[in-house]
Design brief:
Structural class: alpha/beta
Order of helices and strands: EHEHEHEHEHHEEEEEHEEEEEH
CATH class of the largest domain: Alpha Beta
Radius of gyration: 21 Å
Number of domains: 2
Number of strands: 15
Helix content: 25-40%
Distance between the termini: 48 Å
CATH architecture of the largest domain: 3-Layer(aba) Sandwich
Strand order of the largest sheet: 2-1-3-4-5
Number of helices: 8
Shape: elongated
CATH superfamily of the largest domain: Response regulator
Strand content: 25-35%
CATH topology of the largest domain: Rossmann fold
Low-confidence stretches: 128-142
Length: 250
């Protein structure tokens, strides 16, 4: 069996001592190769785009861009992620972001070894199955969002796409509507649509993208005027082309 190349990883942490300590600890794991050290989120985004690491060791709390902001900005080429932080309150959010592991500082060598084992196993499983899954389901293989991150002041809301009822265009922003709340995000509807599963989200109008799981029925007001009635009785307009999109999907 041919020897596998080491997994290329990037360390992202705003604390110099933490970066160096983790790099020293990883030197004892030949399965990994540290290809770069980043001291903030902006450097991390640049390095990910240019160096294409397979794995991130990512701090959460950093100035300007925190760890979750970094993941939001590199969604189309996101690598495996292990969060390394001094705070345990982000664990749920980290695993919602599909983190492989969540390590607390100072990093325990045994926990680090366990995390490395998980990464090696995941990379080993993914490589032979990639072509098979692409042939079986090309749409599924695309980088489709499973959650949407929305910045709100000092907070980041994680919205599972299955909880999103519809998304409304508002110039350079979108209003993301769930059953309980509406979240405003700086993004364009057309751009966000490309990242969502086309089997679940349908463009029913130039201003509305509907999660069809929340569609209750369609009512006709006239020959070319229709309304989508949602499960909570909210109403959305359906354009002529939007109705065609719905017919193809349903």
């Amino acid at each position: 069996m041919a020897k596998r190349d080491p997994i290329r990883c990037l360390i992202v942490d705003d604390e110099p001592h933490a970066r160096q300590a983790l790099q020293n600890a990883l030197a004892r794991h030949p399965e990994l190769e540290v290809i770069g050290l980043c001291e903030n989120g902006l450097q991390a985004v640049k390095a990910i785009n240019e160096q294409h690491p397979q794995l991130l060791f990512l701090d959460v709390q950093m100035p300007k861009l925190d760890g979750f902001d970094v993941l939001e900005l590199v969604q189309e080429q996101i690598p495996f992620v292990i969060f390394v932080t001094a705070y345990d309150q982000y664990a749920v959010q980290a695993f919602e972001a599909n983190a492989i592991d969540y390590l607390l500082k100072p990093v325990d060598p045994k926990r680090l070894a366990q995390a490395v084992e998980k990464v090696v196993a995941r990379v080993g499983m993914e490589e032979p199955s990639r072509l098979e899954s692409l042939l079986a389901d090309p749409v599924r293989e695309r980088e489709l969002l499973r959650r949407i991150l929305v910045r709100d002041g000092s907070e980041v809301h994680v919205l599972p796409v299955d909880a999103v009822m519809y998304i409304e265009a508002a110039d350079d922003y979108v209003a993301i509507h769930t059953a309980e709340n509406t979240h405003i995000k700086l993004d364009r509807l057309s751009r966000l649509q490309k990242k969502l599963d086309p089997r679940q989200f349908c463009r029913i109008h130039r201003s509305y993208l509907l999660n069809i799981n929340f569609l209750s029925r369609i009512e006709s007001e006239s020959k070319d005027s229709r309304i989508a009635i949602l499960t909570d009785r909210r109403e959305l307009p359906i354009s002529r082309s939007g109705y065609g999109n719905l017919q193809k999907l349903l």
